[in-house]
Description:
228 residues; mainly alpha; 2 domains
Amino acid sequence: MRTSAMFLAIIVLLCAVFTIQVRLDTMDLRHQSMEFYMYIPSGKFLKHFTLGFDQLIADYFWIKTISYFGDHVMADRHYPWLYHMLDLVTTLDPLCQWPYFFGGIILSLEANQVEQSNLILKRAMRYHPNVWAFPFYIGFNYWYHYKNPARAGSFIEIAAKLPRAPAYLKTLPARLYSEGGQKEAALRFLQEMMTKTQDPRMRAKLEKRMEEIAQGKMKKFSARKIMP
């Protein structure tokens, strides 16, 4: 009975997906966002009906997400349903990293949906706490879009302490804190980094940054210097 019910549910789900696909293929691109995507449920709702096939359904909608982005980047460059699709994919399969990277960057720099970018990246931090890039990109969003270097520094500080974080992140949060008027936070961060490194060259850099902050000589920097 259980096997039959599961088989029937899968058939119904596939039929629904096929119907949606046929309707999408016959629609004009201008109406896809307004008509087709509004019928796609949230990931939390859909999760109750996947019968354990979360990854399979997530893979399907991930392909549709890439297709949706590709269609619109070549046409109107408007992405009103991009976050909805990415939220669905990362809810069904929260352990897959690529949708987070794609969503965090594209929502921020192409779709100009910074708040949604941060939401996707914060979910990434929850499921991938040891990946330094996710808090780093949130920090970039706060610095580049919101002009809030102190808030940016708090996320990049998280990134700087994670495994495989690039060496330049060890001093970057201090510069952001200093630029945001938080000299004490900048010095405290550098002092903590000093206790965690034995590399004489890195210690020399940290000492130099501490001296610059103490003397108020830290220079501002450009986007080229914050991005890897």
